[in-house]
Amino acid sequence: MKQIINNSISIKNINHSFGDHQVLKNVSLDIDSGEFFSLLGPSGCGKTTLLRIIGGFLLPNEGLVYLGNKDTTTIPANDRPTNTVFQKYALFPNLTVYENIAFSFRVKGIKDSEFYDKIMSYIELGRLQAHVDKYPSQLSGGQQQRVAIMRALANEPKVLLLDEPLSALDAKLRQHMLLELDRIHDEVGITFILVTHDQEEALSVSDRIAVMNEGEILQIGTPVELYETPATAFVADFIGENNFVSGIVTKILDEDHALIDTSLGDLIVELDKKVKVGNRVTLTVRPEKIEVLKNKPSLPNEWHNLIKGTVYDVIYSGFQSKYFLEVRGHTSYIKAFEQHDIFFEDGTEVVHWGDEAWYLWDADDSYIVEVFDE
Fold first, then answer.
1. How far is 320 from 247, CA to CA, in rounded Å?
2. In whole angstroms, what is the distance from residue 208 CA to residue 227 CA?
3. Who's near 108: CB < 8 A, 6+ residues apart?
4. What are the distances in angstroms from CA 256 to CA 56, 251, 273?
5. Is the model's pLDDT at 34 over the cut of 60?
6. Residue 360 forms beta bridges with which residues?
7. CA-CA distance, 69 to 219, in Å (whole number)?
8. What's 299's DSSP letter?
9. Distance between CA atoms of 190 and 141, rounded to whole angstroms?
10. Element (DSSP H or E) covering residue 22
């Protein structure tokens, strides 16, 4: 069933406005053939508008859309080799699972005998064999979603567009359906483009992600690249939790590290951006990168940061504890997350609310996300 065809998408300088409001601002990106690609961002950032332009439901004010080597910008949605799965699955309530998936073939007047095997292969792909003769009202939300996806795939599009298809599902079912989406993509092999505002969804299934805000793409990368090396403060804040600290560059230590004067004291950061002495910067460190210690440790080497404060709060959530450290002179709490990979026996020294504690992290886990003029 896996198709070996050119399913690449190229978006070139797309601009689009609704009235006086510009929704997309000179958006360009390339999506590789067979990729599972996500458009991630908050509500109103333009991601659904971009998906609708790719699918042919909207004509952009400016710019071009290529599928493979073909300009599809002005081709109507029904003549474009794409299919869309919307938030509302739009299944026909009076048709069975089989009939919903086979609908487009019957509308074209094709005989059942000519597409029966194909429809059954998609029913098997969607793990819907036990539900062939059921109606949508007899299915769970996850089963309805799989029917919608199989109906979209049955026409063998080159690109499947997914417009927040998991938003109506509860948390556990959403996680299960993410695994199903990933499995289906791997088996079919065509290009998937997912629109979502949920960073966990995007990180879970995507080969690459474009993070959008206010009509612009801020960063494109793999889930690891976006999470570990965010390019901007918005990306760092939107994907996962983070600590933000402002300061001034006081010394370039070597080609990879700089010393920053902050309200937490002098901190060493990795130089993933060009800076010079005197620049004001914003740096980040992920909470899970920080080790929480009851007693002052000796530094493993010079490329570590160590700060002291008072534990303002501890939140226990089963698999981890979240520590909030109050540091004199710093206006917000510094978060640290500790995974519970071992069981704490009686007598084990742990950090509690109100304790003085030390936060330790590797300098290479601190990144500069904003650079300002002197």
1. 30
2. 12
3. none
4. 46, 12, 10
5. yes
6. 291, 306
7. 25
8. P
9. 24
10. strand 21-31
Question: What would the two tokens of residue 229 be?
Answer: 């090396």
What's the token pair of residue 89?
């699955």
Query: Nearest Cα to 249, choosing from 163, 156, 373, 146?
Result: 373
pLDDT at 3 over 50: no
Q: Which residue from 83, 113, 89, 71 is spatially nearest to 188, judged by alpha carbons?
A: 83
> Cα(337)–Cα(292) distance, rounded to whole angstroms?
8
How many angstroms separate the CA atoms of 164 and 221, rounded? 20
In tens, the pLDDT along 170-205 reads 778 888 888 888 999 999 999 999 999 999 999 999
Each residue's pLDDT tens digit, 82-140: 999 988 878 999 999 999 999 888 888 888 888 899 999 999 999 999 999 999 999 98
Q: Give me the half-sphere count of Cα atoms (radius 13 Å) on the Cβ side of residue 238.
A: 28
Q: What is the DSSP letter of 42?
A: -
pLDDT digits (tens, 9 = 90+) for 140-162: 888 998 999 999 998 889 999 99
Where does CATH 3.40.50.300 sit in the chain? Answer: 9-237
Domain spanning 9-237, CATH architecture: 3-Layer(aba) Sandwich (3.40)
Angstrom CA distances, 158 to 130, 214, 248, stand at 28, 29, 50
Token couple for 204: 């879970």
Name 142's Cβ contacts closer than 8 Å, sequence gap at least 6: 169, 173, 176, 177, 180
How many whole angstroms separate alpha carbon 329 and alpha carbon 326?
Answer: 9
Q: Are 216 and 22 in contact (CB under 8 A)?
A: no
Which residue type does 243 have? N
Distance CA 139, CA 46 (A): 32
Any idea what the Cα angle at residue 238 is, between residues 234 and 243, rounded to 5°?
Answer: 80
Residue 186 in contact with residue 13, Cβ under 8 Å? no
Cα gap 1→16, rounded to integer Å: 37
> How far is 166 from 98, CA to CA, in rounded Å?
22
CB 280 within 8 A of CB 274: no
Tokens standing for residue 309:
């404060």
Which residues have CB under 8 Å from 343's CB, separation 6+? none
Q: pTM for the full model? A: 0.88
Residue among 306, 325, 334, 326 at smallest CA distance from 243: 334
